[in-house]
Design brief:
This protein has 14 helices and 14 strands. The protein is of the alpha/beta class. It folds into 3 domains: 155 residues, Rossmann fold (3-Layer(aba) Sandwich); 91 residues, 3-Layer(aba) Sandwich (Rossmann fold); 107 residues, Rossmann fold (3-Layer(aba) Sandwich), CATH 3.40.50. It has a 6-stranded mixed beta sheet, with helices on both faces. Helix 10 runs parallel beside helix 12. The longest helix is centred in the first third of the chain and has 16 residues. It is globular and about 80 Å long. 41% of the residues are buried.
C-alpha cells in the first residue's frame, strides 16, 4: 500500500461467508473483477481469510475478505471456523453465499442467526443461479446471481453500496478549531518512531487541520518551548503524543488547551467515555493484577517500547504495585477475557470503529474495565483533567 492509499481502518470491510464449495471465492472475484481468491472444486480450498484492499464502485475504498467454509471439519476445520467468526464480528457488510441449486443447509441458517445476533448488515446471495430454470425475484437483502456468467453481479454491487455504513461526522481535530487557528502538534522522535515517516494519527491530524483552513506547527517535545516562544500568540490547541504528556504539560501554559492524539482517536472511534471510566479502575488494582496490553498493529518492539516498557513503568510509579502483563497485537484478541483485571488498548488508528467497539463490548460483557494508552498515561502523569477540558461533559464528570 502506498502513502496515498486509504488506510484499512478507513475502508468499508466486506466479508464473503458461507459453507465450503458454494462459490464464495468465485463470487468475490466476480464482484471485484480481479482474481483475488484461489478457485477450485475441492472443498476447503480457502483455509485462511484472504484480504484485498481496493476501490469498488459504488462503495469506494474497501477491504474484501474471502473466508474458510463455515462447515469445515476436523480439528483444523474448527480453528478455521473460529477465524471466520472473528472476522464476522468485525465486518461492516456480510455477504452470505449459498448454492442456489440446493436447499439452504442447517449451517447456513445458523450463520444467518449469528449475523443477525451481531447486528451486521448482510445480503443473502444464492450463487450458481445459472443452474435454475426459473430465477426468484430479488428482495432488499436477497439476490440470485451467477459468478460463472456474471448474472446479477452489477445488481449485487448496487445492493452493497446501499448497505455501506454511514461515516461518522466527528473529525479528529477539526471540531475543536476554526479558520486561522494555530495548532501545535508535538511528535517525539525516538527509537520507536518509524524511520523516515510519521505515524497515522499525526498525518491525519495535519490533514484535518489544513482542511479546516487552520495553521499547523509540528515540533518535537525537545523544541516545544522554543516553538511556543516564536509564536506571536498562544496556539488554540496543543496535541501531543501521549508518552510526552508529562514534559509537554509543564511547558504549555495552563490557559492553552492540551490533549493527545490517542485521546482524540478514542473519541473518533467511539469509546472515549468508556476509556475514561475504565481508567478509574487503575486506582483499585491490587498487587499481581493481570493486565492485557492490546495493540491494533504489529511492529518490532524496541527496548523502550511504550506498551511493554513505558506504560508498566508508569503504572509501577503511580500505584506502587507490580502487575502481570500479557500482550495481543494485530487482529489477534483473546476470546476469554475473564482472567484479566484491566485491558489497556492502543489508540486503535489501524482498526476500524467496529473492530474497536467489538473488543470494548467483549470487555464489558466480561465485566473487565477497558481503557486506552492516552487516557492511562494522562492519568498517571497528572494530566487527565486538563486533557479532557476540550470535552466539557467528560471533564465535568471527573472534575
Amino acid at each position: 500500500m502506498s502513502l496515498q492509499d486509504t488506510p484499512s481502518a478507513s475502508r468499508v470491510h466486506i466479508g464473503f461467508f458461507g459453507c465450503r464449495n458454494v462459490g464464495k471465492s468465485s463470487l468475490m472475484n466476480a464482484v471485484t473483477g480481479q482474481d483475488i481468491a484461489v478457485v477450485s472444486n475441492v472443498k476447503g480450498t480457502t483455509t485462511d481469510p484472504v484480504n484485498k484492499a481496493m476501490e469498488l464502485l459504488p462503495l469506494g475504498p474497501v477491504v474484501v475478505t474471502d473466508t474458510p467454509g463455515f462447515d469445515d471439519e476436523g480439528e483444523l476445520g474448527e480453528l478455521r471456523v473460529r477465524k471466520t467468526l472473528r472476522k464476522l464480528a468485525t465486518t461492516d457488510i456480510a455477504v452470505l453465499v449459498t448454492d442456489a441449486a440446493r436447499p439452504m443447509l442447517e449451517e447456513e441458517e445458523q450463520l444467518i442467526g449469528m449475523i443477525r445476533q451481531k447486528q451486521v448488515p448482510y445480503i443473502l446471495v444464492h450463487n450458481r443461479s445459472d443452474l435454475l430454470d426459473e430465477i426468484p425475484e430479488t428482495t432488499d437483502n436477497e439476490i440470485w446471481v451467477s459468478a460463472l456468467t456474471g448474472f446479477h453481479i452489477h445488481e449485487l454491487k448496487e445492493m452493497l453500496g446501499k448497505l455501506a455504513p454511514k461515516k461518522s461526522s466527528l473529525r479528529l481535530i477539526g471540531d475543536f478549531i476554526k479558520e486561522n487557528d494555530v495548532v501545535v502538534l508535538v511528535t517525539p522522535i525516538d527509537e520507536s518512531a518509524p524511520k523516515g515517516r510519521m505515524i497515522l494519527p499525526q498525518v491525519q491530524a495535519i490533514r484535518d487541520i489544513l482542511d479546516s483552513h487552520a495553521i499547523v506547527v509540528t515540533t518535537r517535545e525537545t523544541e516545544l518551548e522554543q516553538t511556543l516562544a516564536v509564536l506571536k500568540n498562544d496556539p488554540a490547541l496543543v496535541v501531543t503524543d501521549s508518552q510526552a504528556f508529562e514534559i509537554v504539560a509543564e511547558i504549555v501554559p495552563d490557559s492553552v488547551r492540551l490533549t493527545s492524539f490517542s485521546i482524540l482517536m478514542a473519541r473518533v472511534k467511539g469509546f472515549l467515555d468508556e476509556a475514561v471510566a475504565g481508567a478509574a479502575a487503575i486506582d483499585h488494582l491490587e498487587e499481581g493484577a493481570r493486565i492485557l496490553i492490546a495493540e491494533g498493529c504489529t511492529h518490532h518492539r524496541q527496548c523502550n517500547d511504550i506498551g511493554t516498557v513505558k506504560i508498566p513503568n508508569w503504572l509501577k510509579r503511580s500505584t506502587g504495585h507490580d502487575f502481570i502483563y500479557e500482550t495481543a497485537s494485530g487482529k489477534e484478541f483473546p476470546d476469554d477475557l475473564s482472567r484479566y483485571d484491566l485491558i489497556l488498548h492502543c489508540g486503535a488508528c489501524m482498526l476500524t470503529e467496529r473492530d474497536v467497539l467489538v473488543r470494548m463490548e467483549a470487555a464489558q460483557a466480561a465485566g473487565i474495565p477497558f481503557t486506552n494508552y492516552g487516557i492511562t498515561i494522562a492519568k498517571m502523569t497528572g494530566a487527565l483533567e486538563r486533557s479532557l477540558r476540550i470535552f466539557p461533559k467528560l471533564h465535568d464528570l471527573i472534575s
